Amino acid sequence: MAFRNLARNLFQFAKITNINQRLYSTIQRKPFRISEIAQRHVPIRTFSAVQTNDNAYRDLETFLQKEVQLEKSAQKHPTQLPTISNFQVQTSGPEVTLTREIGTGKVTVKFNVTNTVNATDTEQEADLNATGQEKPADDSPTHLKSRPTFTVDLNRGGQTLSFLCSYLPNSKSFNIQESG
């Protein structure tokens, strides 16, 4: 109710001060006027007569088909998943679960392979070898490795011990030496 009264008062104020009349009079002073025919004509629908380039679509389709063929030929295991000894492998899309029964305990490893593929070398390492000279260009494919974050659950006697594991950012290995 208060909003309705406020709106009514604003409209009455606008009538009294002739704001609209001043506004429209400044618009009509423009150097051009729209003719009566143009004012009566309202386009029903606008359209574009731009011609599309079908060759670009064909080129894109050809390129994508070649890429799919290259991806399929680069697969190490195209028909079935690799087996890991003593583990049962289960997949649900990108989620992979490895399960193994050991006596009264159970070991479960879970990981997701989405967005985890990295080249074996970084871009800088790929450009330069250990002596600082550029590597010769060869046509051998880059070896990709998946390094996902994974969890290891050890379940024994109703108790579970979980580890969240990930790979180190650099590919250099390190050795842990045990004392004693």
Task: Describe the structure in your own words.
The chain has 180 residues and is of the alpha+beta class. Among the domains are: 2-29, no CATH class; 88-165, no CATH class. 32% of the residues lie in helices and 23% in strands. The protein has five helices and seven strands, in the order ααααββββαβββ. The protein has helices at 2-17, 19-28, 36-40, 54-74, 123-127, and strands at 88-92, 95-102, 105-112, 117-119, 144-146, 150-156, 159-165. A five-stranded antiparallel beta sheet has the order 1-2-3-6-7, with no helix packed on it. The chain has a two-stranded antiparallel sheet with strand order 4-5. The radius of gyration is 35 Å and the shape is flat. It starts with a helix and ends in a 15-residue tail after the last strand. The model is unreliable at 123-131 (pLDDT under 50).
Label this structure with key terms.
MAM33, 180 residues, two-stranded antiparallel sheet, MAM33_sf, single chain, five-stranded antiparallel beta sheet
Entry summary:
The protein is of the alpha+beta class and 180 residues long. The protein has 5 helices and 7 strands; from the N terminus they run ααααββββαβββ.
